[in-house]
Write the structure tokens for this entry.
Amino acid sequence: MTTFYFVRHGQTEINLANRLNGGSVDSPLTAAGVDGATTVGRVLATHQFTQVVCSSMPRTQRTTALIMAENQFRTVTPVQPVDGLREMNLGDWDGHRIADLADQAQTALYFHDPLAFDAHVAPAIHSETYAAVRQRSRAVIDAAYAAHPDGRILVVAHGVVFLVLLNDLLGRPLARLREWPLLANTTVTKLQTSDGHHYTVSYRDRLPAVD
């Protein structure tokens, strides 16, 4: 049995400004983001992780460092930043507020119809597709499971990446992924698998009562 702990990065300045925090922009963690990451670290301090994988973006690497600074086993736990967990690149939209975007019909598809967004909007705004995010992020989890089929793995990444990834791990079609809300910053979601194909949720979006 492999147990995955998924943690969204700490709040950033772009999050606080209600701007799209995609894969081509980054900003420092806010004070609340630092506090949240430190709190997660303290809650998970006695967990000995077999591996830690995180997005290669600065905000997730900073969050991971803050979490692991509190961990009793930090000196023996490998931490691996990977590009496959980077946030969805929203092209021309990155860094902008949704309300300021000119075509609100396009934004409606982004929030409500992933398949139509991929087909019609992503090419027009030079965005990555949801399907591409699913493929690259799932590959990271599949590789982690293959390397540690009886392990405990911490995964630190992003809101939309986790929206896509958790939807896929739980066997739901891509068209339904927007039925889920985004995970909150610096909360913990725990999934388990015994075969790398079928996953069950122990809890979602929780802090501090985790195990």
